[in-house]
Amino acid sequence: MVDDQDLQINLPNDQWEHATAPEGQLYLAMRRGEFERFTPNLSADSVELGPDETLEDPAYEALNRLRRFDDDARVVSRSVNDDVDEIGTIFQHVEFNTELSEENTLRLAQLQLILRVPLPDEERRVALMLTLTAEAADISDYADDFEAFVRGVEFR
């Protein structure tokens, strides 16, 4: 696993603020402002990859976690670069529903970037997942911020 000693995460701009990450999550930032139903957020998680695991494994697990809440969670688009000679990445856009009340659901989307972390110890293999979560209709409004968030991650 990677912890906050292994990397530095920078906010994309002053429209975001650091938040306390829930137990088991590496990082969380929330969009500043008032939102009627859902506050967009940026997050980071890491997972140790087993000897036979590829980046496909944490990407599949991320989708599976969403399917625990919504059986119809689906990958809208996906691109894979799992070249062993490079860092390797999977980028996927996922949409799912979340229940606000018995009569009211909200369509959310995530932009997920899963990348292999470059570590000095080549025996260890770790994947980092950077995520933007927002209402599906608004996800493109925050895409530039997500790109800046990704560029702002520095490995130590």
UniProtKB/TrEMBL annotation:
The lineage of its organism: Bacteria, Bacillati, Actinomycetota, Actinomycetes, Propionibacteriales. Gene3D superfamilies: Mog1/PsbP, alpha/beta/alpha sandwich. This is DUF1795 domain-containing protein.
